[in-house]
Structures are given as C-alpha cells and as structure tokens.
Amino acid sequence: MLTSAKIQQLVSVAFASAPRPEDFASACSCPECADVNLSFQSCDDTLPPGLAWKLPLLSPDAVRYLMPQLVRNCLCDDADDDLCWNFVTMLGEPVSKSAPPDYLRFASTFDRGQFAATLAFLKFIHADWYSEAEPAPKDVIRGIRNWEHFVERATGDWCSETIVSSLTYFSKRP
Hints:
Layout: H1 4-14, H2 31-41, H3 60-75, H4 81-91, H5 112-129, H6 138-153, H7 161-170
C-alpha cells in the first residue's frame, strides 16, 4: 500500500512544474480577493491562516501551485481539519459524466499527470481514513468517480510510471 509520504511525493512530482502565480485569487477586485492575495504575499511558501474559507476564491493557477501543500496539510498529523475537509469537498464537487476534464474551474490548468495524482490522493484518503464501519462521505466517493473520469478523458501523454502504478494499485480497492 502506498504511504502518506509516497502520496505526498507523487503529488509533489506531478505539480512540480506549476509556477508560483503572481496573484492567488481569481481576477477580481473585490476586498475578499484582495485579502487572499495579500495573505499569500506575506506568507512566502506556507499556507496562510484562514485559507479553508477562501479556497473558492483561488485561481486555477493558484490551486495548481498549492496542490502539494494542500495535500501535505491533509496528510500530516497536525492538519488544519477545516482546510482539509473543505479541500476534499472541493475535489468532490458534482460533475456531469459528459463534462470535459477542465470542467472544474480550479482544475482547468491541470495536465493528465496532475489529474492522476489528485485521483491517487483521493483514493488514498478513501483507503486510509474510512472503512465499512465508517464509510466515506459522498464527497470522497463522488470525487474519486469524477477524477477517474478526468484521467480517462484528459489529453496529453505525460503520466509518470509512479502515478500509473498507484492508480493500478488503487483500482483494486473500492
């Protein structure tokens, strides 16, 4: 079974090429978006406090850049539980079966390997955090279905062997 550290490494490798965006919030001049941009300017490469409630304001480039940190937060012992749950819920937003891989606004800049790494993360969460006694919430199940769909439909030929092997392993699990 893949460990938390391996999943973090998988996501870090898949998203390593994502550049730090100049602005982290969507192209908007509202006070909330300005606050998001300001909070990231003062935090260097750490996640700012209160990000859990600001996730919907992040631009696609910001989500892509922050994916390794967001995943690391979810899998560490001192996780920000609100941020983790809101992030997993965001990954499990409802999506039509006919939707293209870039349907989710925040994932519109992901490549095939990044879709696959995100799917591996969700499958790890499902396998590691939940059981028959405590079934996974619908957001996690729906997220897995969505991201399987995205990986299947994504274009591009990059998908590392590590990511492919993790998907092969997890495809044997519910």
